[in-house]
Amino acid sequence: MTSALPAFPAPPALDTLLTPDQLEERLRAIGAERYHRNHPLHKAMYAGELTREQLQAWALNRYYYQAQIPVKDATLMARLPTPELRREWRRRIVDHDGTEPADTPATEGGVTRWLRLTRGLELADSYVTSLEGLLPGTRYAVDAYVAFVRDRSVLAAIASSLTELFSPTIIPERMSGMLRHYPFITEETMAYFKPRLTQAPRDSEFALAWVRAHARTPETQAEVIGALEFKCGLLWTLLDVLDYSYGRGVQGPAQAHIPPGSFVPEGYVSAIGGKPTQHALLSPGA
Ligand SMILES: O=C(O)c1cc(C(=O)O)c2c(n1)C(=O)C(=O)c1cc(C(=O)O)[nH]c1-2
């Protein structure tokens, strides 16, 4: 039995056909307006206005995005029709999952590098990877990305990765702001981000060229625009749910709405009651 309503209906066609340059201009305008670089929580983060516990919550939740990116890419790769496209997507999976120690070159993947950040913030790997303390909103938003690339056209799926066109703007401001403002953040804990500065432009240039070449009707151009809007909304939502759940700065605990079962930092207990998630933290000396 097929369901009556598609999970992600295609948006209505554009009124006019855009040239590839006009389409790219539209996509860049969407990024300038909607990318999570403009989210108030991102700005507060690199301005040094968050507490260590709020950064723990961010890193813990964003781990799920990192962990599901290779799942998303493998889902898409299975749908790609040519060896050239599959090779391109295979490299993305290797970037995130790494290679075997015996492989040449043996590379650490992005998911493992993310754990350096969560460890630097004193979260235990076992707690982070168990996904136990995730906010439900994080889980729904990230799962929607995997479902989107599974259910929509290959063109829309490829276009949904185009937020990476804009990540080279957000990563340097996040890295330098965090290193400057938080004494417990070091180059080592931020190691995840450096390789992304070369990986993201390479990946997004390929995806952009492919989209420019293949979105040549008002229908497909609308799909591409809709895919990028969907993805910007997803990244925005990841920050919205953190903001709502943990608040910002020293006022955070008084503003917090932590859902039952999600990570409860020690500093939130007097405001919200309940118990802190002690097993979330590295044991001293670990
Ligand atoms: O730090 C960021 O703000 C940021 C943003 C994005 C993005 O724009 O989707 C990605 C990443 N990082 C990232 O690290 C990453 O591996 C990644 C993969 C993808 C994707 O859609 O395939 N986006 C992103």
Automatic annotation (TrEMBL):
<dbReference type="InterPro" id="IPR011845">
    <property type="entry name" value="PqqC"/>
</dbReference>
<dbReference type="InterPro" id="IPR039068">
    <property type="entry name" value="PqqC-like"/>
</dbReference>
<protein>
    <recommendedName>
        <fullName>Pyrroloquinoline-quinone synthase</fullName>
        <ecNumber>1.3.3.11</ecNumber>
    </recommendedName>
</protein>
<dbReference type="Pfam" id="PF03070">
    <property type="entry name" value="TENA_THI-4"/>
</dbReference>
<dbReference type="GO" id="GO:0033732">
    <property type="term" value="F:pyrroloquinoline-quinone synthase activity"/>
</dbReference>
<dbReference type="InterPro" id="IPR004305">
    <property type="entry name" value="Thiaminase-2/PQQC"/>
</dbReference>
<dbReference type="GO" id="GO:0018189">
    <property type="term" value="P:pyrroloquinoline quinone biosynthetic process"/>
</dbReference>
<comment type="function">
    <text>Ring cyclization and eight-electron oxidation of 3a-(2-amino-2-carboxyethyl)-4,5-dioxo-4,5,6,7,8,9-hexahydroquinoline-7,9-dicarboxylic-acid to PQQ.</text>
</comment>
<keyword id="KW-0560">Oxidoreductase</keyword>
<comment type="pathway">
    <text>Cofactor biosynthesis; pyrroloquinoline quinone biosynthesis.</text>
</comment>
<dbReference type="InterPro" id="IPR016084">
    <property type="entry name" value="Haem_Oase-like_multi-hlx"/>
</dbReference>
<feature type="domain" description="Thiaminase-2/PQQC">
    <location>
        <begin position="25"/>
        <end position="240"/>
    </location>
</feature>
<comment type="similarity">
    <text>Belongs to the PqqC family.</text>
</comment>
<keyword id="KW-0884">PQQ biosynthesis</keyword>
